[in-house]
């Protein structure tokens, strides 16, 4: 069987969920601007370099996800589970992080958070590169 289908472009919430159910976890560089992923279970997925700006991830399970270099600006991450996620150089400016679980998630000095957000207060670990 050819590998052509393994890297199909994921650019809708429906396609993403279908691929996840099929066992796919590599969604690197996916374009999911404004996607409605409320309460979706996506734990363990690779969203590095993905564009999730303005996405609704309210209550989503993103445990252990790689969100390095992802654009999450203006995303709704309220009550999302981001425990153990990698947020290196991620853009979370103007994201709603109210109630988000961030314990043991990793970030670095290049991770951009909303104004007045204290990463240490929510259990984020800032790694020195």
Automatic annotation (TrEMBL):
InterPro entries in alphabetical order: 5peptide_repeat (IPR001646), Pentapeptide-BTB/POZ_domain (IPR051082)
Name of the protein described by the UniProt record: Pentapeptide repeat-containing protein
Source taxon at top rank: Bacteria
Pfam families associated with the record: Pentapeptide
